[in-house]
């Protein structure tokens, strides 16, 4: 199993990228969103990958985070959703958008993806609704982008390192979800409240998401 590919972009096609890893080129199929975020030819790139194995084909699919890769795996488990449809959904909504749509039962958001009909969208939401809390709990997750080492003499002194910024996006949703479940809310209702709060304020940090979600769960 090939779980991650890191190297240099050789070229980008309409639906795939060729990544040169030590002289070996890996063709990795990606959503439009992921392809747009990759650097131009010659620059370093990395993707988490899922290998599709069939009798007559071997194809790699690439994702910037483990959460997005997990949604791809789950979407593929739904009847009528193949790799192309999964990439269409993820390309249209992104990992966080898919989490929100499924947690909130938003069939229309799933249906907005190219090639996804109403029945398929309903199946996606119905079959994966209970899976949303676990994927949301992954947060932004590790990013596949290649890291760069910093020489010891160029690393900043400990006293000069700024305090980390408050978590936002997927990380904030993960932390808020954890806090709400610790307060005794069920994973499903907590995920739905966090998803709605994040949809209304995408840049909210953890504390803001918790406050907003609590207002939804226990309105005054």
UniProtKB/TrEMBL annotation:
Keywords: ATP-binding, Cytoplasm, DNA damage, DNA recombination, DNA repair, DNA-binding, Helicase, Hydrolase, Nucleotide-binding
InterPro entries membership: DNA_helicase_Holl-junc_RuvA_I, NA-bd_OB-fold, RuvA, RuvA_2-like, RuvA_C, RuvA_C_sf
Domain spans labelled DNA helicase Holliday junction RuvA type: 1-62
Region ranges (Domain I): 1-64
Listed GO biological process terms: DNA recombination; DNA repair
Subcellular location as annotated: Cytoplasm
Subunit structure: Homotetramer. Forms an RuvA(8)-RuvB(12)-Holliday junction (HJ) complex. HJ DNA is sandwiched between 2 RuvA tetramers; dsDNA enters through RuvA and exits via RuvB. An RuvB hexamer assembles on each DNA strand where it exits the tetramer. Each RuvB hexamer is contacted by two RuvA subunits (via domain III) on 2 adjacent RuvB subunits; this complex drives branch migration. In the full resolvosome a probable DNA-RuvA(4)-RuvB(12)-RuvC(2) complex forms which resolves the HJ.
HAMAP family (UniProt xref): DNA_HJ_migration_RuvA (MF_00031)
Domain remark in the UniProt entry: Has three domains with a flexible linker between the domains II and III and assumes an 'L' shape. Domain III is highly mobile and contacts RuvB.
Protein name: Holliday junction branch migration complex subunit RuvA
Lineage: Bacteria, Pseudomonadati, Pseudomonadota, Alphaproteobacteria, Rhodobacterales
């Amino acid at each position: 199993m090939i779980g991650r590919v890191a190297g240099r972009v050789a070229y980008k096609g309409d639906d795939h990228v060729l990544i040169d890893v030590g002289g070996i080129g890996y063709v990795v199929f990606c959503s439009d969103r992921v392809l747009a975020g990759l650097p131009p030819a010659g620059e370093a790139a990395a993707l988490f990958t899922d290998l599709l194995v069939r009798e007559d084909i071997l194809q790699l699919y690439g994702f910037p985070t483990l959460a997005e890769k997990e949604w791809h795996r789950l979407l593929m488990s739904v009847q009528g959703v193949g790799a192309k449809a999964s990439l269409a959904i993820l390309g249209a909504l992104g990992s966080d958008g898919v989490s929100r749509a499924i947690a909130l039962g938003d069939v229309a958001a799933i249906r907005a993806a190219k090639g996804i009909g109403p029945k398929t969208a309903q199946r996606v939401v119905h079959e994966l609704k209970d899976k949303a809390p676990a994927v949301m709990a992954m947060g932004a997750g590790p990013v596949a982008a290649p890291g760069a080492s910093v020489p010891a003499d160029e690393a900043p002194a400990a006293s000069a390192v700024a305090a980390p910024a408050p978590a936002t996006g997927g990380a904030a949703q993960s932390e808020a979800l954890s806090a709400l479940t610790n307060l005794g809310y069920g994973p499903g209702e907590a995920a739905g409240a966090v998803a709605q709060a994040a949809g209304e304020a995408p840049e909210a940090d953890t504390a803001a998401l918790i406050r907003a979600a609590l207002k939804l769960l226990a309105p005054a």
